[in-house]
Amino acid sequence: CSRGRISGFLAALALLAACMPAAACLATCKRVFEVPLAGVAKRTVLPGRQRSLKTGRRVIVEPPVRTRPPDTFSDISTQRADWTECLIKDPVPKAKAAALRVETWVFRTKDLGDFHRHLRLRGFHNNGEMASLSCRERRVDAEIRCSQCVRLLCGGYYGHLGVCVPAYPPQGDAVGCLALSKTIDMPAPATEEDDSGDWDGDQGRQSAFCNSVNVRFDKVGN
Fold first, then answer.
1. Could you say which residues form the signal peptide (predicted)?
2. CA 20 to 30 Å from 155, out of 116, 139, 188, 195?
């Protein structure tokens, strides 16, 4: 194009901009030059984006965490009181020199009453506080060995106090020994004329006790 035609075109464009509104002028200029003007951006909306704008955002929230309920008192008590261990310190009065016998017994805590029967059958007394008996609760320990495992049979035909016999078959560890504890089914005598002996109405049962320590200490004279 010649310089004169370009000058005339620019003059016409300036006149058009002065007479038309700004929006109409921009549209006309865009059609004339067939290119987007500087500062005017065309917004392109993708199909997926358009659907998301219509439906809105969806937020996925994790479900609430359910915490474990605290242990009940009965559960804690059961865990702590499975077994009981008793220490006996018994002086030997007939010894030529002062001597002390020390024994440790392990048994189920629920068999504590039967353990006292076992001590009475053995003739254990605490007269004058010469002998001492101290007990504590403890948990199951598979490492405890038994120098002796005994059973107390009481109730029914065995009477209230019962009888004490060695374990059969012999048990070398506390777990096997105390597993012998159980109830015994003994039907009551049919008539009053039956020779029931020392019949006791309590449930017949067998309680086992593990003697884990049995030593004697002799005092050496000067």
1. 1-24
2. 139
